[in-house]
Predict the structure.
Amino acid sequence: MKSRRDFKSSPGRRPLRVYAFDPSRGRHFGNEMQLDVRYRPVKPGPVDATTAHNRVAVIDYDDSRKKYYRPVDLDEPGILISNGLPPSETDPRFHQQMVYAVASDTIEQFELALGRRIHWRRAERSLNAPKGWLPDDILSLNLYPHAIHQANAFYSPEAHGILFGYFRAAGTAVGLSIPGQPIFACLSHDVIVHEMTHAILDGIRGCFMEQTNPDVAAFHEAFADLAALFRHFSHREVLLDAIARTGGRLYTPALKGDSLADLASQSGLSSGEEPNPLIELAAQFGEATGSRFGLRSAIGQPKSMRDLQEPMDCHERGSILVAAVFDAFFQVYMNRAAKTFRIYRSAGGIERDDLTSPLADALCDEATTTASEFFRICVRAIDYLPPVDVTFGDFLRAVMTAQTDYDPEDTDNICDAWMQSFRRREILPDDAAFFSMDGLVWPVEPDSVEVDGIPTGGPLGFDKVETQQTVKALVAFIDANRQRVGLARRTDYAIPSFHPMYRTDRNGSVRWDLVVEVVQKASKSSPYPVRGGTTLIVSTHGTRGSGNAGIKFLRYAIRKPLFGPEGRRRADRQRAYFAEQGLNPKADPHSLRVNLAFIHGES
């Protein structure tokens, strides 16, 4: 018999209704869907009532109207019993619900891929900084559904959150929007995921918001687009419809109509085709501002890095990275789908575009699995990036290393698909000796490099005592091995973050690693700020010794040296980039920060 306490235990999930895409698609093809987010106690807002480092708070203040909207109470009985409020463009409480639900789901997807809890941005600290929180630390990410009256939405570290805008559709609006109707960025699933990804990435790698080369802002934008686009493939009803209307070829830009729709098209009743929603980003937002399509696409024009040597918009540069990743994704998906087609034909199936229901279901499962796998590949790679001055080439090397750690056999040739798609787009690392698997993965450090005194930790992190032990052990190791790990001897360093990484590889083996950021900054006498640093990945998998402080081994030291030949090349490149962009970081250090409000206002 259950005790009274058992009956009062919290549920594991909280079901909430949202738009799969945005209001423009109405109720067609599963656009109104349910998200089962991780349960947390909430106060009206919704505001997470926990003390977790990844908590969020929806604050619905409309600055243009100088008013607060009544906050939704997700624990209200009428809302609870109906799995949340029904989708509505006119009810601000649903807007609050949707922002909270999609934000919570995005956090969970990243944490599942990373194998740990995340936290929001922390201010820069030295090793001797006083204990406690600083004013620039983001303890709770604030989400403002109706913050600004403009066609914009952006993550703002200064506002400790994300500001969503609303605006009137342009008189030239096309698609399913009416000219002059209100458009809410907070009702676009894509926009919410995109902005949440900026906040999550900034919490993991704070220096990636410093514009030290043309790839930095473009990487932030591309990575956020990738996260939003790969979530499309979890919307099963939409995915099934797209598979049926493309014959399984999901990279097709337009969806064909069925025979009845084709007759309607010939009679002028419809076009017979519509854009493929799986590869379009923020369709309603793009159409409401006068475009025939969404803001961006997963495929775009087949441009390479060589085509874009002149100064360019970061979205255009980032679109090359997005297209390269989706080239690889579609290649792996089609290779897997081909096996399904062969089984179907060997069983007497007919080769045709209108797929049978069982075949469409099988292809849907394949697409969802592959998209989820590619999302995890992208996210896992973050831990294998250097802590500063990120480039597209660094990302490719990080992906190759992370995927090799996860699946050394690579039976589906995923790494080869990435390599070939990046080669076609001419995204080539400038520090790899060879464009091959052996040349692209970061080199493994010798087993003899020991890191002593680090506690084992757990998937949720370290407690206070373990944190202090870890800092002490890391400082001792770094001080004794500066040259080995690529750090300057006479320059101070900071450790912006360290965290245990808990992951299961393709064979089911569990690995515990410790990921550490170490960052150095050139002296104040330098005419412009230059950072160097190293990402240390310490293995706890094959720990020798006993107790809570056994011996660990350094697996990777992923370097961006501050000095030496490579450091001088980076400094020269930064100087040229600052001059080209008209940046004066010496006079205005904040000019180096990626200004997402400006960037997204231009998109």
